[in-house]
Amino acid sequence: MIVRMRDDLFDRVTIDGPLTSKESPELLEVLKEVIEAGRDLFLEIEGVSSIDLSGLQLLVAASEEFKRRRRGMALSKASPECMKLVESLGLEPFLYPR
C-alpha cells in the first residue's frame, strides 16, 4: 500500500508491503505527482517487506530526478530488507546523498 500525505513543507509517502514490479507503476505515478508539484519528498520505507530490481531502479531514478529539479528526496526508516539490498549493490550514494 502506498499512501501520500501533504504537509506545508513537503510530501510524505509511506510504502507498506512489497516494492516490486507489480507495485512500481503505482509508486511511479505518486512520485510524478510530487515532482510535477515541485514538492520535496520524505519517503518512508520501513514497511517495505521485499524489494526487487524494479523497485530499486525506481528509487534511484526518482532520487536523480529530484536532484535534477533541485528538490529534496529523503528516505526514512529503511527496512532491513531494503538496506541489505541497497548496501550489497553499493547504492547508498544515490539513495542517501551527503
Indicate the topology.
Blueprint: E1 2-6, E2 11-19, H1 24-36, E3 41-51, H2 53-68, E4 73-76, H3 80-88, H4 92-95
Parallel strand pairs: 2-3, 3-4
Antiparallel strand pairs: 1-2
Task: Give a description of the structure.
With 98 residues, this protein is α/β, with parallel strands linked by helices. 43% of the residues lie in helices and 30% in strands. It contains four helices and four strands; from the N terminus they run ββαβαβαα. The protein has helices at 24-36, 53-68, 80-88, 92-95; strands at residues 2-6, 11-19, 41-51, 73-76. Strands 1-2-3-4 form a four-stranded mixed sheet. Strand 1 and strand 2 form a beta hairpin. Helix 1 (24-36) runs parallel beside helix 2 (53-68). The radius of gyration is 12 Å and the shape is globular. The chain starts with a strand and ends with a helix. The mean pLDDT is 87.
